[in-house]
Amino acid sequence: MVRCGAILYGVLAQEMGFRPTMELKSRVVHLGQYLKGSTVGYDCDGRLTADRRLACISIGYAAGYARIADDRGAVLIRGTLAPALGKTSMNGIVVDVTEIPDVQVGDEATLFGGEGRLRIGPPAVVEQFGTILPDLLADWGMRNRRVYR
Q1: Domains in the chain, ordered, with CATH?
Q2: What is the spatial distance between Cα 122 and Cα 124, in angstroms, rounded to a whole number?
Q3: CB 108 within 8 A of CB 142
Q4: Are 13 and 5 in contact (CB under 8 A)?
Q5: What would the pLDDT profile of 8-42 be if each residue is shown by its tens digit?
């Protein structure tokens, strides 16, 4: 007997041809230029050390983006990693898009999964959220709208 759920969902044994069946995505809902010294994130907990262009992504702890991920991790936007900054709020996170000049409100942000060849996979999210992958997948699956393809 074996437990094959993770393989069926494609999060293990990808080298054997299994493809991931789940991604977690959201959207950029705000963009702005912020000066060195500006505070970032919930409770104004973070402080910028340089002028930055920041994006607000519409996902937070109410949708399973746990607060333990404060100031850790990244999202994929237009095929480039954008680091998360500051504390997670109930419905939003802030990411640094200074190095992605063509980002626009409405752009897709991938929190788990991939864009092209670049992926945020199981090892990255397990470290970012400090828990096991089944815990994340179950939480995200219950809290977010599903889109079937």
Answers
A1: 24-143 (2.40.37.10)
A2: 6
A3: no
A4: no
A5: 666 666 677 777 778 889 999 999 999 999 999 87
